Automatic annotation (TrEMBL):
<keyword id="KW-0560">Oxidoreductase</keyword>
<dbReference type="InterPro" id="IPR009051">
    <property type="entry name" value="Helical_ferredxn"/>
</dbReference>
<dbReference type="InterPro" id="IPR025192">
    <property type="entry name" value="Succ_DH/fum_Rdtase_N"/>
</dbReference>
<dbReference type="GO" id="GO:0046872">
    <property type="term" value="F:metal ion binding"/>
</dbReference>
<keyword id="KW-0408">Iron</keyword>
<dbReference type="GO" id="GO:0051537">
    <property type="term" value="F:2 iron, 2 sulfur cluster binding"/>
</dbReference>
<feature type="domain" description="4Fe-4S ferredoxin-type">
    <location>
        <begin position="150"/>
        <end position="179"/>
    </location>
</feature>
<dbReference type="GO" id="GO:0008177">
    <property type="term" value="F:succinate dehydrogenase (quinone) activity"/>
</dbReference>
<keyword id="KW-0816">Tricarboxylic acid cycle</keyword>
<keyword id="KW-0479">Metal-binding</keyword>
<dbReference type="InterPro" id="IPR050573">
    <property type="entry name" value="SDH/FRD_Iron-Sulfur"/>
</dbReference>
<keyword id="KW-0003">3Fe-4S</keyword>
<comment type="similarity">
    <text>Belongs to the succinate dehydrogenase/fumarate reductase iron-sulfur protein family.</text>
</comment>
<dbReference type="GO" id="GO:0022904">
    <property type="term" value="P:respiratory electron transport chain"/>
</dbReference>
<dbReference type="GO" id="GO:0009055">
    <property type="term" value="F:electron transfer activity"/>
</dbReference>
<dbReference type="GO" id="GO:0006099">
    <property type="term" value="P:tricarboxylic acid cycle"/>
</dbReference>
<dbReference type="InterPro" id="IPR004489">
    <property type="entry name" value="Succ_DH/fum_Rdtase_Fe-S"/>
</dbReference>
Length: 249
């Protein structure tokens, strides 16, 4: 399988980047996007050239570090799959593929296709935790949670923080990410103790760094964890509740 690649090169966030053309004569359809880059880099190393920098870790769709943009779409052509799970079955012999970093003003380029997504970490630092007295673990049945709430909380806790939702949004909004965290923590018994404070702090941080919601739902279309678009509603709901009831509840 022959492919023509246009791969992004950029030394750092202060430098201008450019696309570098690479022809791959022996790609296999079973390869993932990351394995294709591995294949290209192996050839570059053998030829004494500098390999392309890109991020990855588990390559099992769990860690969220593999985010990149494939032909203008975060992660790749298949819906709700991370880049490490995107296979070349979606492409035909002779196709051209453009590979570049996740694009967002909140994601400065570190090198090539590696970006700094610490803006998402700063949102989590504002409330993505629970405050409680440490000690002996409570009995499993001491904090009751009904089945529906537990399942919904787990659905939203599945967010892997890859940041594709921000890159997909034309306004660079983080509403799907932030909303997923708020829903997860709100439905957890321990998380309810500082619900108002969490909502105010996390939403303030998100809105101060990222853009407003575009209302089109591009974020949910690319989310590898399948976080529902309804998570976005948690931003307004939880922030309004905090304003009415007071942030300390």
């Amino acid at each position: 399988m022959k492919l023509h690649l246009e791969i992004w090169r950029q030394a750092d966030h202060t430098s201008e980047g450019h696309f570098e053309s690479v022809d791959v004569p022996d790609a296999e359809q079973a390869m993932s996007i990351l394995e294709l880059l591995d294949h290209v880099n192996s050839a570059y190393v053998e030829d004494g050239k500098e390999p392309f920098a890109f991020a990855s870790d588990c390559r099992e769709g769990i860690c969220g570090t593999c985010g990149l943009t494939v032909n203008g779409r975060p992660h790749g052509p298949d819906k709700n799959k991370p880049a490490c799970q995107q296979r070349l079955y979606s492409f035909n012999d002779g196709d051209s593929i453009k590979l570049e970093p996740l694009r967002s003003a909140a994601y400065p380029v570190i090198k090539d296709m590696v970006v700094d997504r610490s803006a998402l970490d700063r949102v989590m630092e504002k409330g993505g935790f629970v405050s409680m007295a440490a000690g002996t673990a409570p009995d499993a049945d001491s904090l009751l949670v009904n089945h529906e709430d537990a399942e919904l909380a787990l659905d939203h806790a599945a967010c892997i923080g890859c940041g594709a939702c921000v890159a997909a949004c034309p306004n660079g909004a983080s509403h799907l990410f932030t909303g997923a965290k708020l829903v997860h923590m709100t439905l957890s018994p321990l998380g309810r103790q500082e619900r108002g404070r969490r909502a105010k702090n996390m939403v303030d941080e998100a809105e101060g760094t990222f853009g407003p919601c575009s209302l089109y739902g591009e974020c949910a279309d690319v989310c590898p964890a399948g976080i529902p678009l309804t998570a976005v509603a948690a931003i307004t709901k939880e922030r309004a509740r905090a304003a009415i009831r007071g942030k300390a509840d």
